[in-house]
Fold this sequence. Notes:
Order of helices and strands: HHHHHHHHHHHHHHHHH
Oligomer: single chain
Number of domains: 3
Number of strands: 0
Amino acid sequence: MGKTIGNNIKLFRKNKGFTQEELADLLSVTPQAVSKWESENSLPDTSMLIPLAQVLGVSTDALLGYDSLSENEEVIARVKETVIGMKNSDEGRAQKALRISEYLATETTLNPGCFEIIKDYVQETANLSMYADPVLENSFPGEEERLEKLYKDAIRKGAYLIGHCADRGLIERTHFAVAWIYIHMKDFDNARAHINVLPSISPGCIAEKISMELTYFESGFEKMKVDIANNSVLLFDMTASFLNTIAQDYGWNGERDEALRMINWCEGIVRAYASMKDAISMDHYLRIRRSLAFFRLVAVKRSGDSEGAVKLYNDFKDEIGREDLTDEQKKRVIELLDNDIAHYGKYT
């Protein structure tokens, strides 16, 4: 237990952003005592466990390492495999989303300390809320009570994760997903409350940027190049997500010429970025290419030009056929586009 609690104190302290001195002040002990706990040279007195857990924002079980990590890993693997199977079924997208959310609702009740599964549950329920939104797809008329039960359960479990989990990444993903649930519930004040605690790119003070500089000054340019490569992929994923949102909203809501101009601009950015293949996730590249093609089709089809939409589709197939992609990748991107057309065709 000594090794576990020492590592956990250090992990939870860093996740809270405390120095050893700051944690010591909050607990009215010396910084040397905290240092000894974390280096495993001594254990905190039992009377300190509850104050420690409270200050670090975790349960005493988590602090002591009684979170059944290996058991959680088995649960996570089993649940994720089941969800993948559900996603690969022949059901419609909306029905799959509902079935997955209800399955995860049960699993998170049975495994309340498994934060990874709670995060997945909140994310999948956010996805479900998009299909259920009457302004968007309205896939579940008459099922409002069933959906509201899921929304409230996901929000409650998400709040538990946010309050007790030590993993900042899981917390941020959960805030993001809960915000989406509130948006589709039309509870914009609560949505904004979750959005406001998320990290923002607007100041430019992001961890990845300064971390690359730290690597440079600490280990030199060759080591920094590894960070640059990894962060370039992350930046592409984030950029692709932004561009997808822009193209989606213009495709569904903008005037034809305006929409096509914006979507073409988005595609120009993607193409420029993808000129260096090492800087992109190929899966995400294929998905954003299909998204941009689809929303271009939506804009043209909404204008009443069905023949123009067919021409765009065929032009895109020819274009993908000429790209430096494997046969499997070319097949994949067209399958993704065809799936979108099959699902959303009724809305255009």
